[in-house]
Specification:
By secondary structure, the protein is α+β, with helices and mostly antiparallel strands. The chain contains 4 helices and 9 strands, in the order ααααβββββββββ.
Length: 163
């Protein structure tokens, strides 16, 4: 038999859970169920990527600012997803943002997707690879012309190929 106190406790817990999800971020079931052309088991991703790239691409981690060698990459070429090798950004769109992460004003056509990230008690736009779903970073509205966008990417989530 359920008492009123048990119901109140249950409802309080449910309200607290909903508040925590709204404040700290929780991917909705539609986002979690999204399918990508390149898919592997968690163990396969871990083996393929190594610890740092695995944390960023598969668990939405963030590398330390100014730690990526891709910050200093200025040659002509293409930045690609470390998870599936899909080309993501042209070096022609890279710019120095001063943030400590490789930044671009536009991705290649159909290379990335976005979702709402409500972690850290704020709302941001998360950027992921459209082929494997790997987390790349975030996009902000404080970039240079012509787009005004700053795709702030984790260098550990990408590779670079010269042109």
């Amino acid at each position: 038999m359920t008492t009123n106190a048990d119901r109140r406790s249950f409802l309080s817990l449910a309200a607290l859970s909903a508040t925590a999800a709204a404040l700290f971020g929780c991917r909705g079931s539609a986002e979690a169920a999204e399918r990508f052309p390149v898919a592997m088991s968690d163990a396969e991703w871990k083996k393929k990527l190594g610890p740092a790239a695995y944390d960023v691409l598969r668990h939405e981690g963030t590398e330390r600012p100014f730690s990526s060698p891709l910050n200093e990459e200025h040659r002509a070429g293409t930045f690609a997803c470390k998870g599936c090798a899909q080309p993501l950004f042209s070096s022609k769109t890279k710019f120095e943002s001063g943030t400590g992460w490789p930044s671009f004003w536009a991705p290649l056509a159909k290379a990335v997707g976005t979702t709402t990230d409500r972690s850290l008690m704020m709302s941001r736009v998360e950027v992921h690879c459209s082929r494997c779903g790997g987390h790349l970073g975030h996009v902000f509205d404080d970039g240079p012309r012509p787009t005004g966008k700053r795709y702030c990417m984790n260098g550990v989530a990408m590779t670079f190929r010269t042109a």
